[in-house]
Automatic annotation (TrEMBL):
Family matches, as InterPro entries: DgcN-like (IPR011669), DgcN-like_C (IPR035086), DgcN-like_N (IPR035402), P-loop_NTPase (IPR027417)
Name assigned to this protein: DUF1611 domain-containing protein
Top-rank taxon: Bacteria
Domain D-glutamate N-acetyltransferase-like C-terminal: 130-326
Location of the D-glutamate N-acetyltransferase-like N-terminal domain: 46-124
Pfam families referenced in this protein's UniProt entry, alphabetically: DUF1611 (PF07755), DUF1611_N (PF17396)
């Protein structure tokens, strides 16, 4: 667990999806967030007090979280300068980017001189094993998606909370930088060497005999040319008994590849089930979760109802409407 209080970094970001790590912390660890740091050209906000780096430190922030994402996960010179200023103000710095803080000499030297920590969340364990696909005990759910950043993490957390509310033992298994910062543990799957992806998931959600659930956060999409490899290894390692499909109906094209259309929901679900059957022959679909934040509430309800009818599955927006109908199907499947 990375200790707060946090100052959340938005910087010059203009893409709402690109600040998902900062937004996730603001939503799920808000009590640990003192404010947000953003420039005048950033139109986004998390609804937290806007602070300079010095003001954040004075307000009690112990850690600056570079909670932004970009293609390739690199740090530009301005971001490095901001991280250095945070260190000068006595804050540790956490990053979920692929480029590691400790590999930037300016930051490594400054942190060492001040006795502060540089924490790279995308730092997989060194003892990962190759996956085997052998049957293992336990009940596991995996969220899958039509695209990247369509709500898989939010759905996974909602399902975990929903199962606990029913008296079930359930654990959120994080596989991305945002989830790891929220949960305090997990594996940054997109930083794992390809041969070890399925094994990493077997390790993060090992056999269990208590009747409880491992609710595993999905990554990427089988239909996204850039990230389908990660999604495939995750599906095989999860050995899930149930999949929950996530989708953003406002998305016009694949994230980062807007010219490529998203798959149909039925098509996407069918392929995910077929891939999952390699290591979990009895896998089934438990429900569909939509991100309807771009729709009015009545339109969102209508879309959930029509989607559920079309696919023959419970459908909801986990943030707006909860996940009771999906939990019902998990615990007492209609089929």
């Amino acid at each position: 667990m990375i200790n707060g209080p946090f100052l959340l970094y938005l910087g010059h970001s203009t893409d709402p999806v690109g600040i998902k790590t900062s937004r996730g912390l603001a939503d799920f660890r808000r009590q640990d967030c003192v404010g947000e740091f953003r420039y005048d050209d950033c139109p986004l906000t998390l609804g937290l007090p806007r602070m300079t780096l010095a003001e954040g430190a004075a307000a009690g922030a112990r850690t600056l979280v570079l909670g932004i994402a970009n293609s390739g996960g690199t740090m530009d010179p301005a971001l490095i300068d901001d991280a250095a200023e945070a260190l000068d103000n006595g804050m540790h710095v956490v990053s979920g980017l692929h480029q590691r803080l400790r590999d930037v000499p300016q930051l490594a030297e400054l942190a060492a001189a001040k006795g502060l920590d540089l924490i790279d969340v995308r730092n997989p364990p060194a003892d990962l094993k190759v996956g085997t696909g052998r049957p293992r005990a336990g009940r596991r759910i995996l969220t899958v998606g039509t695209d990247c950043s369509v709500g898989k993490m939010y759905t996974t957390i909602a399902l975990t909370q929903g199962l606990k509310a029913r008296g079930e033992s359930a654990d959120f298994r994080a596989t991305g930088q945002t989830g790891i910062l929220i949960a305090g543990s997990g594996v940054p799957l997109d930083a794992v060497v390809a041969d070890f992806i399925s094994g990493a998931i077997e390790q993060v959600a090992p056999a269990r005999d208590d009747g409880g659930w491992d609710v595993i956060e999905g990554q990427g999409s089988l239909f996204h040319p850039s990230f389908a490899g990660v999604s495939t290894g995750l599906i095989h390692g999860a050995q899930a008994e149930a999949l929950v499909l996530c989708h953003d109906p406002a998305r016009q094209g694949m994230r980062g590849l807007p010219e490529r259309p998203l798959p149909g929901l039925a098509e996407c679900l069918a392929l995910n089930l077929r891939m999952a059957a390699l290591t979990s022959p009895g896998v089934r679909a438990a429900g569909v979760c939509l991100n309807t934040s771009s729709l009015a509430e009545d339109a969102a309800r209508e879309l959930c109802e029509s989607t559920g009818t079309e696919l023959g599955l419970p459908c909801t927006d986990p943030v707006r409407f909860g996940v009771d109908n999906v939990i019902d199907n998990l615990l007492c499947p209609a089929n």
